[in-house]
Structure formats: C-alpha cells, structure tokens
Amino acid sequence: MSNSKLHLLFPTAVEVVDNIDIPVEDHDQLLATAYNASYNTGQFNTTKNNYILDTHAPTLRNWIQSRIDNYTKNVMATSSKLKITQSWCLMHKNVVQQLFIHAHPNSIISGAYYVMAPEGSQGIRFHSKSGGHSTPFIDWETDSTCIDQPWTADWNELSVKTGRLILFPSQTYHSVDGQEVNPNVRCVLSFNTWFEGGFGDPSRLQELK
Ligand SMILES: [Fe+2]
C-alpha cells in the first residue's frame, strides 16, 4: 500500500450559508427598486443605486453583517470588523444567465446574496487562475481522466437558490456561465467590504486608516 499523501495547502475559503428566515419585504423592495434599462451587453440590469443596502432592506443587511462578522472571526482569524462599502443588485430576466469573469478590487471579502434564484438558475463559477480564460504562462497538455481534481480544476461552480449567501475573498475571479435562455428572473445582491476604522500595526509602520 502506498504511503503517498497529497496535502491541499492554503485553500480558498468560500462560505455558503442559507438564510432560513428570509425577509420577504426586503426581497420585494430590492426587486422593485429602480434598475438601469440595460448594462454593457444588455444581458442584465443593475440597480441605479450602488449603495442599495444603505437605504434598503435593513433586516437583510443586519443578517448579512452578522455573517460577515462570522467570516472575519472564523476564516480571517480577526476581531477587526468589516463594513459593507458598495452594494448593488444585478438581474437577469428571460435571457441567457451570463456574467463576464471578474474580481472585486479595493475590497477584502465580497458577497453574493440571491434575492431571487428559482430552480434551474445558473450557479456562480469560481476560477482557480487570475484572468480566468486567458492562457496560463506555462501550458501543458492535460489528461481528461484527472483534470477535475481539486488541485487541477480550472473552475468550480456552486449552485444558487433564493436566500443563499456566498462569501468569498474579493480577489477570487468568478463568472456566470449559462448557455440557454432562462425565462425566470435571477437577482443577486452583491457587495464589497473594507475594515471599519482602519487596520494594521502602527508600531510596524503598517497602519492604514
Ligand atoms: Fe462579482
């Protein structure tokens, strides 16, 4: 018997948590707010307000903040607090559910909360390489029999549903990659975060505030 063992060092912590007490009024408010008629390719709409949680959905905001607090404590090992900076909704309606690959600069952790995502909604795809679809610097032929291992996979897709929150490090590239027109509405609330009141050790000349 082989005594070989692979260790997966320093994995990316992505948290998935379902809101078991969905604030229906808040969801309705986010769905009914003003959206831009079209954005970029016209495949999706985004809220005109890019600070939507500052003025809408107070119950939901509190729940999301509690989950952020949990993530900072358990995943980032800090008692420092992260505050929500910008927040906005993105809606697909009777289109192919796609979103270009991107990350969230100037943010510590980001979140995607599904205000509406009925059965059959396209999941969120996380990519292992920055730049996602671009050719890696060193590229060799890969064998399809072992390409989907955790250490070789190019991407991993998580399923979404109404009331689900996914928290991830903001530098993690992600996309939505539907292939066919979906007649339903898929609405995601996204947000970024930053340290409340600054961070870093002033005695080591690392303070930022
Ligand atoms: Fe995003």
Descriptive report:
- This protein is an alpha+beta fold and 209 residues long.
- The protein has one domain: q2cbj1_9rhob like domain (Jelly Rolls, Sandwich).
- The protein has three helices and eight strands, in the order βαβααββββββ.
- The protein has helices at residues 24-32, 52-55, 58-74, and strands at residues 15-18, 45-46, 82-102, 109-116, 124-127, 155-158, 164-169, 174-195.
- Strands 1, 2, 3, 4, 5, 6, 7 and 8 form an eight-stranded antiparallel beta sheet that branches.
- Residues 102, 104, 174, 190 line the site of fe (ii) ion.
- Fe (ii) ion binds at residues 102, 104, 174, 190.
Write the layout of secondary structure elements.
Elements: E1 15-18, H1 24-32, E2 45-46, H2 52-55, H3 58-74, E3 82-102, E4 109-116, E5 124-127, E6 155-158, E7 164-169, E8 174-195
Antiparallel strand pairs: 1-7, 2-3, 3-8, 4-7, 4-8, 5-6, 5-8
The chain binds fe (ii) ion.
